[in-house]
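Aim 2, interim progress. The first record below pairs a target sequence with its C-alpha cells.
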Amino acid sequence: MPLKTAQSLAWNLAKTLMTIMVIVRTGNGYAVMPWDEFDGNPASLVREYDPFS
C-alpha cells in the first residue's frame, strides 16, 4: 500500500486497539502490523505508532 495510506491505517489501529503499530517497507510498498508480530529486519521499519506516548 502507499505510505500515506499505511500511516493513516497505522495511527487508526494504534488508537483503536491501544497497541503499538509499526510500518515496514516491503517489496511492493508498505505494510502495517502490531509491534509484537514483527520479526523481520529492523532496517525495514519506517515508523512506530505508540498510542501511550
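The second target in this work package is listed in the same format:
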Amino acid sequence: MKPNIGITDANRQAVSEQLAKLLADEFVLYTKTRNAHWNVEGPDFHSMHLFFESQYEALDETMDSVAERIRQLGHYAPATLKSFLQLTHLAELTERTNDSLGFIRELVEDHNSIIEFIRGNIDPIGNKYGDMGTSDFITGLMEEHEKMAWMLRAHLK
C-alpha cells in the first residue's frame, strides 16, 4: 500500500531520488570516517581514534534516518556499495597522509559538499515538491553536518 500523505507519487519519487543521493553521500562519508578511525597514525593517535569513532557513530544514525525517510515516502533505499558509488557526489578515495590532519582535511571537504547539496535541496523539496517534512528533516541534517565540520575544522587551527 502506497503512502497517502498529501504528496503526489511523482513528487515523492523526486524527493526519494534526492534522498538516495544523500544516503550514498552519507555512506561514503561514514566509510571514510571509519577509515580514519582505523588507520590514523601519529602522536595524537588515541585521541583522534576516539574522535573519529564519535563522528562515525553519529553518521551511522544519520544514514539510518535518511534510509527510513525514503521508506516513509514509499520507496526503497539504495543498499549496495555499487549503488552508493553510482549515486554519491563524493570521491571514494583521495590522496592524503594517514595522520590526523590529512584525514581531517578530507573529511571537512566531504562535509562541506554534503552541506551544499542539502542546502540546495531544502527549498525545492519543500516548495517545488510540497514535502515540508523532508525539507525540515534535511535542514536538521545540514545543521548536524555543520557542527561535525566545525569540530573537524577546529583541529586545523
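The two ends are 53 Å apart (CA to CA). This observation will shape the mutagenesis plan for the next reporting period.
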